[in-house]
Amino acid sequence: MEIDLMDKILSLAKRRGFVFPGSEIYGGLQNSWDFGPLGVELKRNIKAAWWDRFIRRRPDMVGLDASILMNTKVWEASGHLKKFSDPLVECVKCHKRFRGDRIKTEDGCPECGGKLGEAKQFNMMLKTRLGATEDKASEVYFRPETAQGIFVNFKNIMDTERMSLPFGVGQIGKAFRNEITPGNFIFRTREFEQMEIEYFIPVPEKDKDWNNYFEYWRKEMLEWISSLGVDVKKEIRELEVPEKDRAHYSKRTVDFEYAFPFGEEELYGLAYRGDFDLKNHGETSGADLKYKDPVSGEEFYPHVIEPTFGVERSILAAMCSAYTEESAPTAEKGEEETRVVMKFPKWLAPVKAAVLPLSKKEELSSVAKKLADDLRNDLFVDYDETQSIGKRYRRQDEIGTPYCVTIDFDSLEDKKATIRDRDTMKQERVAIAEIKSYLLERFKEQ
Fold it and tell me: Residues 53-93: pLDDT tens digits?
């Protein structure tokens, strides 16, 4: 990857409507981002595909959508109020703050060169108030993870869904962390979205093969990463996290690190949480959160394997892997030029096809608009009749549209249109009446 790839992606993201700086007309808000018309389609495609693969199509999975705000006792029982923290160091000169585990304090402040103070633990929970009063009782926290909503609903799910071990509960939702040093575009933000699973398994003492569940989900996560267009062998490194660096609840964690332009950083995480959460919530709340074996009648707290997927990091990795610059002939003169193309997997591309009349003349535009309207019933379609056909091709390449359908004057006679493939740039003449089935068949292949 080129050193300036991040700058190119940032520029393309705003120029083409993937991601905008948050609150931009007021000078922005530190590290907040708004997903534009194309970015929100990427998000929807990722979340829909994830839900379909890991929840809807599996008999051992159910879904949940828990509240963002929860009783403060939830975070006391889970250990977040005491242990969900990062080391913070502050410059005694400029008073800028940094994460202590990501900086060499002996080197001094990276901003002004001043001396850095001793590291202190900084809790990353984001606090707010609920209701009209402003006393201690009104304090609540935005959830820093989606997992706890699953644990506190464990009994409700068992009572309503008749699940047997092993089984999982998944959800997609917002989480909030008061990060000390957010940055690198949408990689680390204070507001983000998670796709998370808590997979409940028998206790290891009764199932010596518990690690098989961990390995199973490790492979599932690698397959999902590959489906985003990421070259797993070249761009992914699996890191076995040492005990001192693991979260307080984790007995084993594997991080899937992606080779971002700014370095190898965590894309997803897979953790073995043991029975820490259910046991703590059961004992703290007094609720019966034990699982009752339907055969033996024995009751116990199940253990948990947790695959966690970040939505924004999924988008960033997919954009980095998709970004391509290559030499290509111009449409008008046959000369060579640099073509920028986002080679998203076809299922992920925000726009699936673009319908392009060769000119704005009514006899062509009427046919093209009718075709576009028909395709919209099944696919997200763009209609574009401005500028030359070559510039329109390049515009669609930059947003990753897999197919461009051109209606030309020959179309009025032979009732056919030219379909151009994004990756190969090969063109094929297809009957207009068959274009929908032609495209749907190719998307079905993925």
Answer: 999 999 999 999 999 999 999 999 998 888 877 787 888 88
pLDDT of residue 85: 76
Residue type, 83: K
Euclidean distance between the first and final Cα of the chain, in Å? 26
Structure confidence by residue, pLDDT tens digits, 172-185: 999 999 887 777 99
User: Three-state DSSP class for 381?
Assistant: strand
For residue 429, the cross-strand partners are 418
Beta strands in 299-335 (DSSP E): 299-300, 303-310, 323-329
CATH 3.30.930.10 region(s) of the chain? Answer: 5-84+124-319
Residue whose pair of structure tokens reads 């999982």 in the numeric block: 168
Q: How far apart are CA 134 and CA 186, in angstroms?
A: 33
Q: pLDDT tens, 193-202?
A: 999 999 999 9
**Which residues of the chain are in CATH 3.40.50.800 domains?**
351-444
- Distances in whole angstroms, Cα of residue 43 to Cα of each of 172, 338, 348: 11, 28, 9
Q: What is the DSSP string of 176-209?
A: E---SS-BTTTTB-SEEEEEEEEEEE--TTT-TT
CA 424 to the chain's CA centroid: 28
Q: For 438, how many CA atoms within 13 A lie in the half-sphere containing its CB?
A: 19
Query: What is the CATH class of 351-444?
Result: alpha beta
336, pLDDT greater than 90: no
CA angle 73, 79, 83 (to 5 degrees): 135
pLDDT at 1 over 50: no
Architecture of domain 5-84+124-319 in CATH? 2-Layer Sandwich (3.30)
